[in-house]
Specification:
Blueprint: E1 16-17, E2 26-41, H1 45-57, H2 62-85, E3 90-100, E4 105-118
Length: 120
C-alpha cells in the first residue's frame, strides 16, 4: 500500500502518543489534562462528483481515503502540539472521533496530556 494511505505518528514529534491508559516502562509523573486536535475538511466539487460516480460501481474512494488520512495526521499534529505547549511529553488514551456533515468531515484526536519518565 502506498505511503499516501498510511497513518501513525510522525517520528519527528517528541511527544509519545499511546492509545493505552498506561505506558509500560514509564511512570506518569504529572497529568496535565485533556488535549485535542481538531480539523474540518471539505472536498472540492469535482472530487465529490468523481467520488459519487465511483460509488455507483463500487470500489475504494481513494481521494476520500487520502483526505481522511491527511486529516487524521493533522489532528494528531495539533494534539501533540497542544500537549507539548502545556509541558507534556506524552498523550495517553488517545482516540479519534469522526463526524461527517454537509460542509465537510470533522476529525478530532483527543487524549490526556502527561509528563512521563522512564521507570527505574
Amino acid at each position: 500500500m502506498s505511503s499516501d494511505f498510511s497513518g501513525g505518528q510522525d517520528p519527528s514529534i517528541d511527544v509519545l502518543v499511546s492509545t493505552m491508559n498506561d505506558l509500560p516502562g514509564f511512570r506518569v509523573e504529572r497529568v496535565l489534562g485533556e488535549v485535542f486536535g481538531l480539523t474540518v475538511r471539505a472536498r472540492n466539487v469535482a472530487s465529490s462528483f468523481g467520488s459519487a460516480m465511483k460509488s455507483l460501481k463500487g470500489g475504494e474512494l481513494k481521494g476520500q481515503t487520502k483526505m481522511l488520512v491527511d486529516s487524521r495526521l493533522e489532528a494528531m499534529r495539533r494534539l501533540t502540539d497542544e500537549a507539548a505547549s502545556r509541558g507534556g511529553n506524552a498523550v495517553l488514551a488517545m482516540r479519534f472521533e469522526t463526524s461527517a456533515g454537509e460542509l465537510g468531515t470533522e476529525i478530532c484526536a483527543y487524549g490526556t496530556a502527561c509528563v512521563v519518565s522512564a521507570a527505574t
